[in-house]
Amino acid sequence: MIVFIAIFILPARSVVAGSYIVGLPCASDKDCRSIPLENLVTEMYRRVGIEVEFRYQPKMRELADADHKVIDASGARALSILSPFKNLVPVPVPIVEVRYVALTRSGDRIRQIDDLHEFKVGIIRGDMYGSKIMAEHEKQVYYVNSFKTGLRMLNQGRIRALLTETGTLALYKGEGLGEGVRRSGTLFSEKMYHVVNKAHVDLIPRLSEAIRSMQSDGTMERILGDLNHLQPVEAAP
């Protein structure tokens, strides 16, 4: 009987422990992997005793899969886009804060979102929050398949501005954006929250405490490194 348990029960536990899948968005054709976000989520779950795996997907598919429990959670999402997904529950402490900027060619100086009036603005397909903000300001957008595609279209004059998150922009640090391309200051920002399928709602108090402890003990700052501007200004109560 003891041998039976050792052979059959323990491997089953191992499979369960290794099958918790967190979805992350693939918004770049440079490299889908977001190592800082992976490290944040890995450490958050390590503090509650869970080992996670990551699956990169287009932004919309990732949320739909988490909602239908094809995967267990979504890495970081704005609360304002979650209403269509009835099976998703956010951890109430923000994990990152994204900041949006506009890239334009020389001669176009953007100080606020209304400066994009009548511009043909590119935005990465699947960016639900950026699209929502632009719609609220009655700005039409042109969807591009990736940051690199949008940047090429900007340099070719096919769009007049490219709206992007600073985290995506950081992937291209050191490569150059093109002659005469300028970056605006922050046009708007939004705190992002880790989101779990409701089957894992029991984890939320422990995940909340894990995020708070990562902020207070300096772990979040250490993991983000050059991307420390993504750390939320303040944690939710």
Question: Your description of this structure?
Answer:
The protein is α/β, with parallel strands linked by helices. It folds into 2 domains: 133 residues, D-Maltodextrin-Binding Protein, domain 2 (3-Layer(aba) Sandwich), CATH 3.40.190.10; 93 residues, D-Maltodextrin-Binding Protein, domain 2, CATH 3.40.190. The protein is built from 8 helices and 10 strands. Strands 1, 2, 3, 4, 5, 6, 7, 8, 9 and 10 form a 10-stranded mixed beta sheet that branches. The longest helix is centred in the first third of the chain and has 16 residues. The radius of gyration is 20 Å and the shape is globular. The termini are far apart.
Write a compact overview of the structure shown.
With 237 residues, this protein is of the alpha/beta class. The protein has 8 helices and 10 strands.
Q: Let me know the largest β-sheet.
A: 10 strands, mixed
Task: Estimate percent helicity.
Answer: 25-40%
* Domains (count): 2
Mean pLDDT score, rounded? 84
Span of the ends, CA to CA: 50 Å
CATH class of the largest domain: Alpha Beta
The CATH H-level superfamily of the largest domain is Periplasmic binding protein-like II
The Cα radius of gyration reads: 20 Å
What general form does the structure show?
Answer: globular
Structural class from helices and strands? Answer: alpha/beta
CATH topology description of the largest domain: D-Maltodextrin-Binding Protein, domain 2
Helix/strand order, N-terminal first: HEHEHEEEEHEHEHEEHH
The CATH architecture classification of the largest domain is: 3-Layer(aba) Sandwich
Stretches where pLDDT falls below 50 for ≥5 residues? 1-17
The beta-strand count equals 10
Our count of helices gives: 8
Beta-strand content: 15-25%
